[in-house]
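During the reporting period the student researcher (J.K.) took over the structure-prediction task from the postdoctoral fellow and processed the backlog of single-chain submissions. One of the processed entries is reproduced below for the supervisory committee.
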Amino acid sequence: MTEAKAATGKKSAWDSVKPYFEKESLAAFFLGVSSGFPYAMIAATLTTRLAQDGIEKSTVTAFSLAFLVYNFKWLWAWIVDGVRIPVLGRMGQRVSWMIVTGLLVMAAVVNLALARPADDIVYTAIAAVLVGAAGATFDIVIDAYRIETLKPYQLGTGSGMSQYGWRVGAAAAGAVALYVAARHGWQAAYIACAMFALPAMLTAIILGEPARRKVEIARKGIAEMWQSVSGPFVEFFRRSGAFVVLLFILVHKIGDTLANLTLRLLFDDLAYTNDEIALYDVGVGFWALIIGVFVGGVIYARYGLKKSVMLSLILMAVSNLSFALLAAAGKSNLGMAAAIGFENFASGYGGVVVVAYFSALCDLRFTASQYALISAAASIVGRFLTGTTAGALIEAMGYVNFYILTTFAALPGIVLFWWMMKTGLVDAAMGTAGEVGEGDARDDP
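J.K. obtained the following C-alpha coordinates:
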Protein backbone atom coordinates (compact mmCIF):
# COMPACT_ATOMS: atom_id res chain seq x y z
CA MET A 1 0.00 0.00 0.00
CA THR A 2 1.32 3.44 -0.88
CA GLU A 3 1.99 5.98 1.85
CA ALA A 4 -0.69 8.33 0.46
CA LYS A 5 -3.32 5.62 0.52
CA ALA A 6 -2.25 4.54 3.99
CA ALA A 7 -2.49 8.11 5.24
CA THR A 8 -6.03 8.64 3.92
CA GLY A 9 -7.16 5.21 5.05
CA LYS A 10 -8.85 4.61 1.67
CA LYS A 11 -8.77 1.10 0.28
CA SER A 12 -9.84 -0.29 -3.06
CA ALA A 13 -12.34 -3.14 -3.38
CA TRP A 14 -9.44 -5.51 -4.06
CA ASP A 15 -7.65 -4.33 -0.91
CA SER A 16 -10.73 -5.33 1.10
CA VAL A 17 -11.06 -8.79 -0.48
CA LYS A 18 -7.35 -9.59 -0.83
CA PRO A 19 -6.86 -10.75 2.79
CA TYR A 20 -9.17 -13.72 2.12
CA PHE A 21 -6.54 -15.12 -0.25
CA GLU A 22 -3.50 -14.60 1.97
CA LYS A 23 -1.87 -17.58 3.63
CA GLU A 24 -2.74 -16.48 7.17
CA SER A 25 -6.47 -16.29 6.38
CA LEU A 26 -6.37 -19.60 4.50
CA ALA A 27 -4.66 -21.11 7.53
CA ALA A 28 -7.52 -19.82 9.70
CA PHE A 29 -9.95 -21.81 7.52
CA PHE A 30 -8.14 -25.10 8.14
CA LEU A 31 -7.87 -24.31 11.85
CA GLY A 32 -11.63 -23.79 11.88
CA VAL A 33 -12.25 -27.17 10.22
CA SER A 34 -10.51 -28.97 13.06
CA SER A 35 -12.17 -26.78 15.67
CA GLY A 36 -15.66 -27.66 14.46
CA PHE A 37 -15.49 -31.43 14.35
CA PRO A 38 -15.23 -32.35 18.09
CA TYR A 39 -18.36 -30.30 18.74
CA ALA A 40 -20.19 -32.27 16.05
CA MET A 41 -19.09 -35.56 17.60
CA ILE A 42 -20.98 -34.83 20.83
CA ALA A 43 -23.86 -32.87 19.28
CA ALA A 44 -26.30 -34.17 16.66
CA THR A 45 -24.05 -37.10 15.71
CA LEU A 46 -24.02 -38.55 19.22
CA THR A 47 -27.73 -37.83 19.63
CA THR A 48 -28.46 -39.89 16.52
CA ARG A 49 -26.19 -42.69 17.66
CA LEU A 50 -27.81 -42.89 21.11
CA ALA A 51 -31.31 -42.79 19.64
CA GLN A 52 -30.49 -45.62 17.23
CA ASP A 53 -29.16 -47.65 20.15
CA GLY A 54 -32.51 -47.32 21.89
CA ILE A 55 -31.41 -44.97 24.70
CA GLU A 56 -34.24 -43.08 26.47
CA LYS A 57 -34.85 -39.51 25.32
CA SER A 58 -34.31 -38.10 28.83
CA THR A 59 -30.89 -39.72 28.91
CA VAL A 60 -30.03 -38.54 25.40
CA THR A 61 -30.78 -34.88 26.21
CA ALA A 62 -28.72 -35.12 29.41
CA PHE A 63 -25.65 -35.63 27.22
CA SER A 64 -25.85 -31.93 26.33
CA LEU A 65 -24.10 -31.34 29.67
CA ALA A 66 -20.89 -32.43 27.93
CA PHE A 67 -20.89 -28.99 26.25
CA LEU A 68 -20.47 -27.27 29.61
CA VAL A 69 -16.77 -28.09 29.43
CA TYR A 70 -16.40 -25.47 26.69
CA ASN A 71 -17.72 -22.76 29.03
CA PHE A 72 -15.00 -23.43 31.59
CA LYS A 73 -11.97 -23.74 29.31
CA TRP A 74 -10.58 -20.45 30.65
CA LEU A 75 -9.81 -22.25 33.92
CA TRP A 76 -6.95 -24.20 32.36
CA ALA A 77 -6.11 -22.01 29.34
CA TRP A 78 -3.11 -20.60 31.26
CA ILE A 79 -1.44 -24.02 30.95
CA VAL A 80 -1.31 -23.62 27.16
CA ASP A 81 0.38 -20.23 27.59
CA GLY A 82 2.67 -21.05 30.49
CA VAL A 83 3.75 -24.70 30.32
CA ARG A 84 6.39 -25.92 27.88
CA ILE A 85 6.03 -29.44 26.54
CA PRO A 86 9.26 -31.49 26.85
CA VAL A 87 11.02 -32.44 23.58
CA LEU A 88 8.16 -31.33 21.30
CA GLY A 89 8.51 -27.85 22.79
CA ARG A 90 11.54 -27.35 20.55
CA MET A 91 9.09 -26.97 17.66
CA GLY A 92 7.55 -23.96 19.40
CA GLN A 93 4.98 -23.42 22.15
CA ARG A 94 1.95 -23.23 19.86
CA VAL A 95 3.03 -25.90 17.39
CA SER A 96 3.84 -28.43 20.11
CA TRP A 97 0.57 -27.82 21.91
CA MET A 98 -1.33 -28.08 18.61
CA ILE A 99 0.17 -31.51 18.00
CA VAL A 100 -0.43 -32.76 21.55
CA THR A 101 -4.01 -31.49 21.83
CA GLY A 102 -4.80 -32.73 18.32
CA LEU A 103 -3.63 -36.21 19.32
CA LEU A 104 -5.67 -35.97 22.53
CA VAL A 105 -8.81 -35.13 20.54
CA MET A 106 -8.19 -38.03 18.19
CA ALA A 107 -7.69 -40.39 21.12
CA ALA A 108 -10.84 -39.10 22.85
CA VAL A 109 -12.93 -39.57 19.71
CA VAL A 110 -11.59 -43.10 19.22
CA ASN A 111 -12.36 -43.81 22.87
CA LEU A 112 -15.95 -42.64 22.30
CA ALA A 113 -16.06 -44.87 19.22
CA LEU A 114 -15.23 -47.89 21.34
CA ALA A 115 -18.02 -47.14 23.84
CA ARG A 116 -21.18 -49.23 23.64
CA PRO A 117 -24.08 -47.04 24.84
CA ALA A 118 -26.57 -49.88 25.13
CA ASP A 119 -24.19 -51.86 27.37
CA ASP A 120 -22.55 -49.12 29.44
CA ILE A 121 -24.14 -45.68 29.28
CA VAL A 122 -21.93 -44.34 32.11
CA TYR A 123 -18.75 -45.14 30.16
CA THR A 124 -20.28 -43.48 27.11
CA ALA A 125 -21.09 -40.35 29.14
CA ILE A 126 -17.54 -40.15 30.50
CA ALA A 127 -16.17 -40.65 26.99
CA ALA A 128 -18.37 -37.80 25.69
CA VAL A 129 -17.14 -35.46 28.44
CA LEU A 130 -13.54 -36.38 27.58
CA VAL A 131 -14.20 -35.43 23.95
CA GLY A 132 -15.60 -32.11 25.18
CA ALA A 133 -12.56 -31.48 27.40
CA ALA A 134 -10.09 -32.40 24.65
CA GLY A 135 -12.04 -30.36 22.08
CA ALA A 136 -12.15 -27.32 24.38
CA THR A 137 -8.39 -27.53 24.95
CA PHE A 138 -7.85 -27.93 21.20
CA ASP A 139 -9.94 -24.77 20.75
CA ILE A 140 -7.74 -22.86 23.21
CA VAL A 141 -4.66 -23.64 21.12
CA ILE A 142 -6.42 -23.05 17.79
CA ASP A 143 -7.74 -19.62 18.87
CA ALA A 144 -4.32 -18.58 20.17
CA TYR A 145 -2.56 -19.78 17.00
CA ARG A 146 -5.11 -17.98 14.78
CA ILE A 147 -4.81 -14.67 16.63
CA GLU A 148 -1.00 -14.77 16.73
CA THR A 149 -0.69 -15.78 13.07
CA LEU A 150 -3.02 -13.10 11.69
CA LYS A 151 -1.77 -9.57 11.22
CA PRO A 152 -4.04 -6.83 12.66
CA TYR A 153 -5.63 -5.97 9.29
CA GLN A 154 -6.36 -9.68 8.71
CA LEU A 155 -8.27 -10.23 11.97
CA GLY A 156 -11.64 -9.67 10.28
CA THR A 157 -11.14 -11.90 7.25
CA GLY A 158 -9.28 -14.44 9.41
CA SER A 159 -12.21 -14.63 11.82
CA GLY A 160 -14.54 -15.07 8.84
CA MET A 161 -12.44 -17.85 7.33
CA SER A 162 -12.29 -19.54 10.73
CA GLN A 163 -16.10 -19.48 10.94
CA TYR A 164 -16.38 -20.92 7.45
CA GLY A 165 -13.95 -23.66 8.44
CA TRP A 166 -15.83 -24.39 11.68
CA ARG A 167 -19.09 -24.91 9.84
CA VAL A 168 -17.46 -27.00 7.13
CA GLY A 169 -15.70 -29.15 9.73
CA ALA A 170 -18.83 -29.66 11.82
CA ALA A 171 -21.04 -30.40 8.81
CA ALA A 172 -18.48 -32.63 7.07
CA ALA A 173 -17.77 -34.63 10.22
CA GLY A 174 -21.50 -35.12 10.79
CA ALA A 175 -22.04 -36.20 7.19
CA VAL A 176 -19.05 -38.57 7.17
CA ALA A 177 -20.20 -40.10 10.46
CA LEU A 178 -23.69 -40.82 9.12
CA TYR A 179 -22.37 -42.18 5.80
CA VAL A 180 -19.81 -44.52 7.36
CA ALA A 181 -22.15 -45.58 10.17
CA ALA A 182 -24.79 -46.69 7.66
CA ARG A 183 -22.26 -49.01 6.02
CA HIS A 184 -19.74 -50.03 8.67
CA GLY A 185 -21.25 -49.09 12.05
CA TRP A 186 -20.74 -46.26 14.53
CA GLN A 187 -17.34 -47.38 15.75
CA ALA A 188 -15.86 -47.09 12.27
CA ALA A 189 -17.68 -43.79 11.77
CA TYR A 190 -16.13 -42.13 14.83
CA ILE A 191 -12.67 -43.49 14.07
CA ALA A 192 -12.91 -42.08 10.54
CA CYS A 193 -13.94 -38.67 11.88
CA ALA A 194 -10.91 -38.51 14.17
CA MET A 195 -8.92 -37.59 11.06
CA PHE A 196 -10.56 -34.15 11.06
CA ALA A 197 -8.02 -33.10 13.70
CA LEU A 198 -5.27 -33.26 11.09
CA PRO A 199 -5.92 -29.97 9.18
CA ALA A 200 -5.03 -27.82 12.21
CA MET A 201 -2.06 -29.99 13.15
CA LEU A 202 -0.64 -29.92 9.61
CA THR A 203 -1.27 -26.17 9.32
CA ALA A 204 0.77 -25.54 12.46
CA ILE A 205 3.58 -27.84 11.31
CA ILE A 206 3.74 -26.24 7.84
CA LEU A 207 3.50 -22.57 8.95
CA GLY A 208 5.50 -23.06 12.14
CA GLU A 209 5.43 -20.93 15.27
CA PRO A 210 3.50 -17.64 14.80
CA ALA A 211 5.88 -14.76 14.06
CA ARG A 212 3.91 -12.36 16.29
CA ARG A 213 3.96 -14.61 19.35
CA LYS A 214 5.66 -13.15 22.43
CA VAL A 215 6.99 -15.76 24.83
CA GLU A 216 6.42 -15.69 28.56
CA ILE A 217 6.78 -19.21 29.98
CA ALA A 218 7.17 -20.06 33.66
CA ARG A 219 9.49 -22.96 34.35
CA LYS A 220 10.18 -22.92 38.10
CA GLY A 221 8.57 -22.59 41.48
CA ILE A 222 5.18 -21.75 42.89
CA ALA A 223 5.62 -18.01 42.37
CA GLU A 224 6.30 -18.41 38.66
CA MET A 225 3.37 -20.81 38.29
CA TRP A 226 1.07 -18.30 39.98
CA GLN A 227 2.34 -15.68 37.53
CA SER A 228 1.22 -17.94 34.69
CA VAL A 229 -2.26 -18.13 36.20
CA SER A 230 -2.66 -14.52 37.35
CA GLY A 231 -0.55 -12.76 34.71
CA PRO A 232 -3.21 -12.66 31.95
CA PHE A 233 -5.80 -11.18 34.32
CA VAL A 234 -3.43 -8.68 35.94
CA GLU A 235 -2.19 -7.48 32.55
CA PHE A 236 -5.72 -6.95 31.21
CA PHE A 237 -7.05 -5.05 34.22
CA ARG A 238 -4.02 -2.74 34.31
CA ARG A 239 -5.08 -1.27 30.98
CA SER A 240 -6.88 2.05 30.77
CA GLY A 241 -10.63 1.44 30.63
CA ALA A 242 -10.31 -2.32 31.19
CA PHE A 243 -13.41 -2.53 33.40
CA VAL A 244 -15.46 -0.60 30.85
CA VAL A 245 -14.33 -2.99 28.11
CA LEU A 246 -15.23 -5.96 30.32
CA LEU A 247 -18.67 -4.44 30.90
CA PHE A 248 -19.11 -4.11 27.13
CA ILE A 249 -18.09 -7.74 26.65
CA LEU A 250 -20.69 -8.84 29.21
CA VAL A 251 -23.64 -6.75 27.94
CA HIS A 252 -23.13 -6.31 24.20
CA LYS A 253 -24.94 -9.49 23.19
CA ILE A 254 -27.69 -9.78 25.82
CA GLY A 255 -30.52 -8.76 23.48
CA ASP A 256 -29.29 -10.89 20.61
CA THR A 257 -28.90 -13.99 22.81
CA LEU A 258 -32.35 -13.54 24.38
CA ALA A 259 -33.93 -13.29 20.93
CA ASN A 260 -32.04 -16.12 19.24
CA LEU A 261 -32.61 -18.73 21.92
CA THR A 262 -36.40 -18.21 21.83
CA LEU A 263 -37.03 -18.16 18.07
CA ARG A 264 -38.13 -21.80 17.83
CA LEU A 265 -40.79 -21.08 20.48
CA LEU A 266 -42.11 -18.25 18.29
CA PHE A 267 -42.15 -20.44 15.19
CA ASP A 268 -43.99 -23.19 17.02
CA ASP A 269 -46.66 -20.83 18.36
CA LEU A 270 -47.09 -19.31 14.90
CA ALA A 271 -47.79 -22.86 13.64
CA TYR A 272 -44.92 -23.14 11.17
CA THR A 273 -44.38 -26.72 9.99
CA ASN A 274 -41.07 -28.55 10.31
CA ASP A 275 -40.64 -28.30 6.54
CA GLU A 276 -41.15 -24.55 6.63
CA ILE A 277 -38.69 -24.17 9.51
CA ALA A 278 -36.15 -26.30 7.65
CA LEU A 279 -36.56 -24.24 4.47
CA TYR A 280 -36.47 -20.77 6.00
CA ASP A 281 -34.67 -21.08 9.33
CA VAL A 282 -32.07 -23.59 8.19
CA GLY A 283 -31.93 -23.05 4.42
CA VAL A 284 -32.32 -19.28 4.03
CA GLY A 285 -30.58 -18.69 7.34
CA PHE A 286 -27.49 -20.68 6.34
CA TRP A 287 -26.86 -18.76 3.13
CA ALA A 288 -27.61 -15.42 4.76
CA LEU A 289 -25.05 -16.21 7.45
CA ILE A 290 -22.45 -17.23 4.86
CA ILE A 291 -22.95 -13.92 3.04
CA GLY A 292 -22.83 -12.02 6.33
CA VAL A 293 -19.51 -13.62 7.26
CA PHE A 294 -17.97 -12.62 3.92
CA VAL A 295 -19.30 -9.06 4.10
CA GLY A 296 -18.06 -8.76 7.68
CA GLY A 297 -14.52 -9.59 6.63
CA VAL A 298 -14.63 -7.11 3.75
CA ILE A 299 -16.12 -4.27 5.85
CA TYR A 300 -13.56 -4.85 8.62
CA ALA A 301 -10.69 -4.69 6.13
CA ARG A 302 -12.11 -1.63 4.36
CA TYR A 303 -13.34 0.54 7.24
CA GLY A 304 -11.46 -0.74 10.26
CA LEU A 305 -12.37 -2.11 13.66
CA LYS A 306 -14.42 0.67 15.29
CA LYS A 307 -16.83 1.45 12.46
CA SER A 308 -17.39 -2.21 11.61
CA VAL A 309 -18.10 -3.18 15.24
CA MET A 310 -20.52 -0.28 15.73
CA LEU A 311 -22.41 -1.31 12.60
CA SER A 312 -22.62 -4.90 13.86
CA LEU A 313 -24.16 -3.76 17.17
CA ILE A 314 -26.81 -1.74 15.32
CA LEU A 315 -27.60 -4.62 12.96
CA MET A 316 -28.04 -7.05 15.87
CA ALA A 317 -30.49 -4.66 17.57
CA VAL A 318 -32.54 -4.13 14.40
CA SER A 319 -32.65 -7.87 13.73
CA ASN A 320 -34.44 -8.34 17.07
CA LEU A 321 -37.02 -5.78 16.02
CA SER A 322 -37.68 -7.78 12.83
CA PHE A 323 -38.98 -10.66 14.96
CA ALA A 324 -41.31 -8.30 16.80
CA LEU A 325 -42.72 -7.36 13.41
CA LEU A 326 -43.06 -11.04 12.45
CA ALA A 327 -44.85 -11.82 15.72
CA ALA A 328 -47.22 -8.87 15.16
CA ALA A 329 -47.95 -9.86 11.55
CA GLY A 330 -48.60 -13.52 12.34
CA LYS A 331 -47.61 -16.48 10.20
CA SER A 332 -46.04 -15.32 6.94
CA ASN A 333 -43.52 -17.33 4.94
CA LEU A 334 -42.17 -14.18 3.30
CA GLY A 335 -41.99 -12.46 6.68
CA MET A 336 -40.17 -15.42 8.22
CA ALA A 337 -37.70 -15.57 5.33
CA ALA A 338 -36.99 -11.84 5.65
CA ALA A 339 -36.60 -11.93 9.44
CA ILE A 340 -34.44 -15.06 9.44
CA GLY A 341 -32.37 -13.80 6.52
CA PHE A 342 -31.69 -10.47 8.19
CA GLU A 343 -30.96 -12.08 11.57
CA ASN A 344 -28.45 -14.56 10.15
CA PHE A 345 -26.79 -11.94 7.97
CA ALA A 346 -26.38 -9.76 11.07
CA SER A 347 -25.10 -12.72 13.10
CA GLY A 348 -22.58 -13.69 10.42
CA TYR A 349 -21.37 -10.12 10.01
CA GLY A 350 -21.26 -9.48 13.75
CA GLY A 351 -19.58 -12.79 14.48
CA VAL A 352 -16.67 -11.80 12.27
CA VAL A 353 -16.06 -8.22 13.37
CA VAL A 354 -16.78 -8.74 17.08
CA VAL A 355 -14.57 -11.84 17.20
CA ALA A 356 -11.89 -9.80 15.44
CA TYR A 357 -12.22 -7.08 18.10
CA PHE A 358 -12.04 -9.60 20.94
CA SER A 359 -8.99 -11.15 19.28
CA ALA A 360 -7.35 -7.71 19.08
CA LEU A 361 -7.88 -7.26 22.84
CA CYS A 362 -5.46 -10.08 23.62
CA ASP A 363 -1.89 -9.56 24.79
CA LEU A 364 0.36 -11.73 22.63
CA ARG A 365 2.04 -13.10 25.77
CA PHE A 366 -1.27 -14.47 27.10
CA THR A 367 -3.34 -15.05 23.97
CA ALA A 368 -4.78 -18.43 24.97
CA SER A 369 -5.78 -17.38 28.48
CA GLN A 370 -7.25 -14.00 27.61
CA TYR A 371 -9.23 -15.09 24.56
CA ALA A 372 -10.68 -18.08 26.43
CA LEU A 373 -11.86 -15.73 29.18
CA ILE A 374 -13.21 -13.07 26.80
CA SER A 375 -15.13 -15.58 24.66
CA ALA A 376 -16.67 -17.17 27.76
CA ALA A 377 -17.71 -13.80 29.22
CA ALA A 378 -19.29 -12.70 25.93
CA SER A 379 -22.24 -15.08 26.18
CA ILE A 380 -22.63 -15.93 29.84
CA VAL A 381 -25.06 -13.13 30.84
CA GLY A 382 -27.38 -13.65 27.86
CA ARG A 383 -27.50 -17.40 28.36
CA PHE A 384 -28.19 -17.03 32.07
CA LEU A 385 -31.02 -14.55 31.50
CA THR A 386 -32.49 -16.72 28.75
CA GLY A 387 -32.49 -19.79 30.95
CA THR A 388 -33.99 -18.01 33.95
CA THR A 389 -36.35 -15.34 32.64
CA ALA A 390 -37.05 -15.51 28.88
CA GLY A 391 -39.94 -17.99 29.06
CA ALA A 392 -41.64 -16.12 31.90
CA LEU A 393 -41.25 -12.79 30.07
CA ILE A 394 -42.84 -14.19 26.91
CA GLU A 395 -45.79 -15.54 28.90
CA ALA A 396 -46.19 -12.24 30.75
CA MET A 397 -45.89 -9.75 27.89
CA GLY A 398 -46.26 -11.72 24.66
CA TYR A 399 -43.82 -12.13 21.77
CA VAL A 400 -44.17 -8.64 20.29
CA ASN A 401 -43.31 -6.84 23.52
CA PHE A 402 -40.63 -9.41 24.35
CA TYR A 403 -38.74 -8.83 21.10
CA ILE A 404 -39.13 -5.07 21.49
CA LEU A 405 -37.60 -5.53 24.95
CA THR A 406 -34.66 -7.47 23.47
CA THR A 407 -34.15 -4.60 21.00
CA PHE A 408 -33.88 -2.14 23.91
CA ALA A 409 -31.61 -4.62 25.72
CA ALA A 410 -29.14 -4.18 22.86
CA LEU A 411 -28.96 -0.40 23.31
CA PRO A 412 -26.56 -0.35 26.31
CA GLY A 413 -23.93 -2.15 24.23
CA ILE A 414 -24.34 0.35 21.38
CA VAL A 415 -24.16 3.38 23.67
CA LEU A 416 -21.23 1.96 25.62
CA PHE A 417 -19.19 1.23 22.50
CA TRP A 418 -20.01 4.68 21.07
CA TRP A 419 -18.73 6.22 24.31
CA MET A 420 -15.61 4.05 24.19
CA MET A 421 -14.95 5.31 20.66
CA LYS A 422 -15.45 8.95 21.62
CA THR A 423 -13.23 8.78 24.69
CA GLY A 424 -10.49 6.75 23.02
CA LEU A 425 -10.96 3.71 25.27
CA VAL A 426 -11.24 1.35 22.30
CA ASP A 427 -7.64 2.18 21.40
CA ALA A 428 -6.40 2.62 24.97
CA ALA A 429 -7.53 -0.86 26.04
CA MET A 430 -6.26 -2.61 22.92
CA GLY A 431 -3.96 -5.59 23.35
CA THR A 432 -0.73 -6.15 21.46
CA ALA A 433 -2.58 -8.53 19.08
CA GLY A 434 -4.34 -5.47 17.66
CA GLU A 435 -1.27 -3.27 17.42
CA VAL A 436 0.46 -2.89 14.10
CA GLY A 437 4.14 -3.72 14.39
CA GLU A 438 6.99 -4.22 12.00
CA GLY A 439 5.92 -6.59 9.22
CA ASP A 440 2.23 -6.39 10.19
CA ALA A 441 1.10 -3.80 7.64
CA ARG A 442 -0.08 -4.65 4.15
CA ASP A 443 2.42 -4.99 1.38
CA ASP A 444 2.17 -2.54 -1.47
CA PRO A 445 -0.25 -3.85 -4.09
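The committee noted the following: Confidence is low (pLDDT under 50) at residues 1-8.
J.K. will present the remaining backlog at the next meeting.
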